[in-house]
Amino acid sequence: MTENDPDHDAFSALLEDSAEDLYENAPCGYLSTSLDGHIAKVNGTLLRWLGYRREELVGRRRFADLLTVGGKLYHETHFAPLLRMQGEVRGVAMEVIAADGTRLPVMVNSTVKTGSDGEPLLIRTTVFDARDRRTYERELLRARQEAERERDEIRRLATTLQRTLLPPVLPTVPGVEIATHYHHASPFEVGGDFYDVFPLADGRWALFLGDVCGKGAGAAAVTSLTRYTLRSAAVYDPDPVAVLTNLNTVLNQEHEDGRARFCTVTFGVLTVEPDGCTLTVAAGGHPPGLLLRADGTVEYVETPGGQLIGILPDARVVTTTIHLAAGDTFVLYSDGLTEARTGDTTRYSEEALLEFAATLAPTSATGIVDALVDLLAGLGKGVEDDTAVLALGVPRSDQVRT
Prior knowledge:
By secondary structure, this protein is of the alpha+beta class.
């Protein structure tokens, strides 16, 4: 059979048709994505598995959009970075969500296709149906769906998830008293407020408190990513401006369906000294900290220029330094407190909080947190958003336990 033979042309056409049919109807799913994750091509097998039309995915969704909340976190923090470093990732177990909301357990292989110059062009991903090998996961999913129908179980699951977003125990900082509180506005929704305190390698301490936009599983995913990024960034460079700039870069790239992922946050570095402590803080769009001095004066500590973290590619962040002496207390809080309703149209406000604090100063970290817990309880259903509180203070000599 020669090239000019009609049978040769028919055979070549048959081969081309078979190749396309093999791609479309392969026993596994195929998809190609751009480097930012947007789906550029998908085969018929994966479309049938998930129940989507081709036009619903190509050019409109990212591969990560098809994953569960846990899968998205793993993809962004482990899978995608490993793929960029190695050029391929194989045999990763994940769950994808079909158009009807059901979950499909899969095994995923991804490879970066490069051009002749070695530059990456796109990502090719193969998806294998793992349902037969993961029967136990189907049972777990069924149990979870049944639990979600029960009100008490929903509350329990939300509480458990919320607990994973907060440190179980805060460290003991020598010479400094630390107190915290988390107020749940609703037992059925996971909020996006967060805080943490942890040691740095040079003997100083890092702390942060913030609030992610939104509620529910999406907010929980961003909160987890935010806490992970803040801690990781502080390991390499604990300067508050550098840490928040790093977080801004990460969140600015976390766009899903055109929606920005952003948060307000205050990050600080604490240095314990013989006569008290020094706190250097930077904030991105977060309410100002409240400073209660030992002499009874109360003021807000402003961080001018702080912008919402994640909105703009280059957020402007500046620092403010505070010295705390014996009897001084510094408080960070989220806006669920100051935006609580005290009437149909009235909010509690920062002015009201300042007046409230003036009746307490001087006080300890535990004292101000206990007072704010009582205040939140008094506001009742007017507190429509979760509220996190983090206070630190230098005890007076008569408060130090021996």
